[in-house]
What does this fold into?
Amino acid sequence: MVYFHNAPASLRLKELAKKPLDLTQEGALTPERIRAMRTDGMGLELLYATERVSHETLEALFSLSLEMGVHDKMVAMQAGEKLNCIHGYPSENRAVLHTAMRDLFEHPQSSPVASQATALARREFEKLKSWIHGVEAAAHFTTMVQVGIGGSDLGPKAIYLALRAFQRPKRHIHFISNVDPDDAAQVVREVDLSKTLFVIVSKSGTTLETNTNEALIRHYLEEEGLDPRKHLIAVTGEGSPMDDPLRYLASFYIWDYVGGRYSVTSMVGGVILAFALGFDLYAQFLKGAHEMDQIALKERGFKNLPLLAALLSIWNRNFLDLPTSAIIPYSQALSRFPAHLQQLEMESNGKRIDQEGNSVSFETGAIIWGEPGTNGQHSFFQLIHQGTTPIPLEIIGFRKSQYGEDLLYQESSSQQKLIANLFAQALALSVGQKSSNPNQLFPGNRPSRILFAEKLDAHTMGAILSFYEHQVAFQGFLWGINSFDQEGVQLGKRLATEFTKQFVHKNKGEPLDIRGFPLGVAFLESI
Ligand code: G6Q
It folds into this structure.
């Protein structure tokens, strides 16, 4: 069997990595290279001249993708094969079908399993459409608060903020995620409860934070003399403890083959996005994601944008040994998108066993983080330019601003200044600067790539979201790991339950369970 570490192309890449392209070398980064090393699809352009790759490296990377059969895995994924599993061990053992949530626009030509998922997604999509039209016609509710955590919060919030520029007039949107009671208390202070809908989003219906916040919200509503049933909407898995339509104004469904961090395009993001942006923009967002799904599925070689990006990331992570990667959007609207991608990548690919249950002998998921530019330039970019750990950048930028409100100041517009900064960073990081003053020397040779588009609108946002989802999936396929489970979060959850039980004892005036939970009780002595 071919594993990542023994694939012939991996061995070739290891050889190439002994002397990788040095971007500071005379003739390495040329205008011709910048013009040639770009590829596009759906109006998204990926510029990768400032990555430390030669043509030979790229060829070997694509050979690796063939040897690891990643195209077949993408086909299998989108057809609904049970890829979320660890062979020979108890595991979730599920299909991975977030792509079916947006396969709503043509005649789906997929497998029976995927078609069935698409049919259910379309049912919820149509249900949402008429429900949203009803809410709009009644013109009573002005505010929506999403209550959910992790995948039920990060993606929807990031996408809402990304598209807020196109929000319908007189809409107010908030999010409550943390079990910290101040999170809910602060939001509740800002809204008129009588005009507010709360979307309680939990696929499992059992998440501690969300169940607790739902109880808090019900309490707040009742205190105001309002009936929670007229203000709460459920988004949950069919058959979950939250699947109890009589307790909610409306209920929408998702399924176990849509992972939390891959669920923005399902009803998890759908209800709030359709309320905030209107149904048509929500549909355009889904369409953008669907079209990128098709690129991931059907394109070969450089035209497969997410695969190319995944291969560049693998080169940086496994062959140049770079442990972390920063997402820097030159767009204030994408301020929470790095946080969403942090979960998407780190929860998906932060794994130390392969799909057969063997410990891997190579590095997997990088540490992902980021902030918008130009703000980041005035804080952590010092380390990125002159620190001891090179950090590859994934830069995102747009030709036009969203509002189109701009001004010439010192004879250039703000958007032009933003773009100037974006390219300046990529160039500075790659070529560096020589100096006889060591403090002003920039070593350069630090990789970056740029994803560039015309404007951040709903369709483009869908494409960018899907681009990253597939970049993550392709990396997982290359490593042979399961990118779709998250066992690593369970131990902490279980122990938190044990600690919480001690508080229950305390609240009842009972002694703490010193014998059953000695380490925990020792911690609690300090509070
Ligand atoms: C994401 C994870 C996780 C999940 C939350 C919320 O992939 O599974 O972040 O989304 O724990 O789960 P529920 O939607 O079930 O409340």
Notes: The first strand starts at residue 38 and ends at 41. Residues 45 and 496 are 45 Å apart (CA to CA). The pocket of glucose-6-phosphate is lined by residues 148-152, 202-204, 207, 210, 259-261, 347, 486 (CB under 6 Å). The first helix runs from residue 8 to 17.
